[in-house]
Amino acid sequence: MSNHPVAGAGLGLRRALLGPLRSHASETQADPAVDFWEVAPENWINVGGRLGRTFRSYTEKYPFVCHGLSLSIGGPSPLDETFLKRLKAFLDQHQIRSYSDHLSYCSDDGHLYDLMPIPFTEEAVEYVAARIRRTQDILDRRIAIENVSYYAAPGKEMDEITFINEVIDRADCDLLLDLNNIYVNSVNHRYDAGEFLAALPGERVTYCHVAGHYNEAEDLIVDTHGAEIIAPVWDLYRQARELWGPLPALVERDFNFPPIAELLDEVETIRSIQRQAPKRNERGEPAVQASA
């Protein structure tokens, strides 16, 4: 049975895109060629009026997934169960196909407005896995956690790939595969992005993020979601396609928006990669294989 809640090529729906999308539809006399949309639920819960009606018009027409900003799954404070109950009502109301959040934390007594790294330790694995299981119980659905970009690894006892795989296994949850984050971390922390990708549990992937970033220096990349997607990130998606088939994928752009036509070109690049036939060796076997 497929683990994918959606299919095809998607785009993050940001409020700043609503006007340009409306203009694009008016000019082309057609809906944008997007198979599914993603939103941060925190930006839409309890939104009413004209904006709320506009959002509802999208959720009634298209498949939607939600990628959260404030779960703080690795945070020291108790889970915000009041928020989770409101979130469940929102997911049910709009028939959201999948919910995910970051494998990080962003709050303690208050919100930190950044994604902080969880220590790669055995204690943290158990702590985070338990909080994911509790979240799934409250939401009455499986969730996915996203591999995140990070710039320091305090208290590290295991490597990143081991930490991610252990959390997913013990929590019995899914993975939102962010390919840009793999690339960013591979440069910042000096590891092979392809080997890292192949070591992830492909059967747990719900869908993929592809995004852009900012090159601060030759050996330092900042994950921004504010630039076009570069060739090495597309190459990782091609490798993921070779490993696990035409995984659903979504263009993640948060600011510095180009014309809608350019964003839709990136969406179309996803489709073109999905249509590519997998490479085979001389024995007819897949040319790229996942790690054992």
Q: Outline the biggest β-sheet.
A: 8 strands, parallel, barrel
Can you tell me the number of structural domains?
A: 1
**Rg value:** 19 Å
Poorly predicted runs are none
Query: What is the H level of CATH, i.e. the homologous superfamily?
Result: Divalent-metal-dependent TIM barrel enzymes
Beta-strand content bin: 15-25%
Classification by helices and strands: alpha/beta
CATH architectural designation: Alpha-Beta Barrel
Please report the number of helical segments: 9
What best-fitting shape do the alpha-carbon axes yield?
globular
The strand count comes to 12
**If you consult CATH, what is the topology?**
TIM Barrel
Helix-strand pattern, N to C?
EHEHEHEEEHEHEHHEEEHEH
Q: If strands are numbered along the chain, what order do they take across the biggest sheet? A: 1-2-3-4-7-8-9-12
Mean model confidence by pLDDT: 91
- The level 1 CATH classification is Alpha Beta
- As a percent range, the share of helical residues equals 25-40%
Please report the distance between the alpha carbons of the first and last residues.
21 Å
